[in-house]
Amino acid sequence: MGVEGKERNRELETGAQVLSGNMGKTIQRLRKAYNLSLSELAEQSGVAKSIISQIERNETNPTLATIWRLSQALDVSIEGVLASGDEEPFIEKSSKADTPILVSEDGKMRLAIIGWIKTIEWLQWYDVQSEAGGVLDSDSHQRGSVECLSVLEGEFEVEVGGVVQQAKAGESLRYRCDRPHSVRCIGDRPGRATMVCILKAAVMD
């Protein structure tokens, strides 16, 4: 093998090590975000616990089949698992025109999606603005998901499983959102809040 061939192989090997290292960090970050132990991820993915541990420590280069099994268990695309990590500081700006808006069925409550697209599979957050009497009815999210509503203006109430709790400006409500739930703007004034949804983060029995 010539010098150029050896140099090319070294470049490929270095690239594979960097990619594997980033993947290990990503898998470990997602596993911890979902509150999964190595044993639980092994059970859900069908990948041996020892192999997952080696991947997270960047001690092995997994096959594509292994990566696919882990991505399925962690509810993330293969591209998301393989994405290179960039630890350099950055500032990313989104304009008002680029911010998607969700509207409740009654047309009185608007949710601006202000969360980062890269975290949408496990973390979502919204700027909530509502007319008086606005109601947002939501279906169940993934099991173990938790939502936090922090009231900035007006007064809101949340109903989950027949239980109702209210909050005024400066107060927050945290609740299970892995079952049907409703958010209402109560009183005779408009309301505003920040809503954060943590998907599959803390399985509660």
Automatic annotation (TrEMBL):
Top-rank taxon: Bacteria
SMART domains referenced in this protein's UniProt entry, alphabetically: HTH_XRE (SM00530)
SUPFAM superfamilies for this protein: lambda repressor-like DNA-binding domains, RmlC-like cupins
Signal peptide residues on this chain, from the entry's feature table: none
Annotated Gene3D superfamilies: Jelly Rolls, lambda repressor-like DNA-binding domains
Domain HTH cro/C1-type: from-to ranges: 27-81
Keywords: DNA-binding, Transcription, Transcription regulation
Name of the molecule in the record: Helix-turn-helix transcriptional regulator
Originating organism: Microvirga terrestris
Organism taxonomic ancestry: Bacteria, Pseudomonadati, Pseudomonadota, Alphaproteobacteria, Hyphomicrobiales
